[in-house]
Amino acid sequence: MEFFHVPESAGIDLGMYLARHSADQLVVYKYVNQVPLYLAFFFPPAYNPSKKYPAFVFIHGGAWESRKIFEDQNCWQGDYLGFLARYYSEKGFLSICIDYRLVRNNGQTSGYGLIDSCEDCCDAMNYVQTNAGTYGIDTDRIYLLGESAGGHLAACVSTLHYKKEYVFKTVFLINSITDMNDPHWNSYVPKQSNHILLAPLSFSERTVLLSPLYQIDEHTSQTVLIHGNHDTCVDKKHFIAGCVPNQEAVICICWRIRTMLFCSLSSQII
To answer: Within 13 Å of residue 29, how many CA atoms lie on the same side as its CB?
Structure first.
């Protein structure tokens, strides 16, 4: 386990990536009740699918219940992490943003709960791995990043092993929700569920299953935990608790989370 204290500024100009935050290609990876869910692809310069590229997969936040379409876009194009996906595509990665089912009624509506959002992200990863040859993805170099609620989903994909065991080169969790026992987030755990994983469980058991903190095992991929001291949405206790059981973690304590700091830090790890 390593600890990094990240400085206040890293001096990276992200303007050009912000200007090109829309995807190069949208692909439908599944339908839910006839509604398409997308993968947003950002290709590296001189992209040639016959070559092998490392892939960087991004899962956006938004309390599991919102996605962002910007004024210069006519549909979903990668959400708030689009510019970060562009940043890494320009560095030679094939970047992919995952669109997933949004929860309804604080996750209490059947088919639109946390487990369903997680299932979508797993299906998205299945699509990426199954079609790796088509897109020129090196399956030994797939990185996963999630922010806030997206960090929770990324951690679930990495630890829950629901549909299969995913092995990532590194998983980055930024201001991630890791423990659904937190009273601020516990209301998103379904009180009742007919999902195959949750139906036999009590409420407390569902809470544990949906908390990546308690699903860490020897198969968990190397994980980078990043949290800002000034985060007013996700308490840093989620970050602190995650440090202890994950002995393969790289822990990053930031005064504030700024994308430029992550870009600077990641160059030390990737």
So the answer is: 26
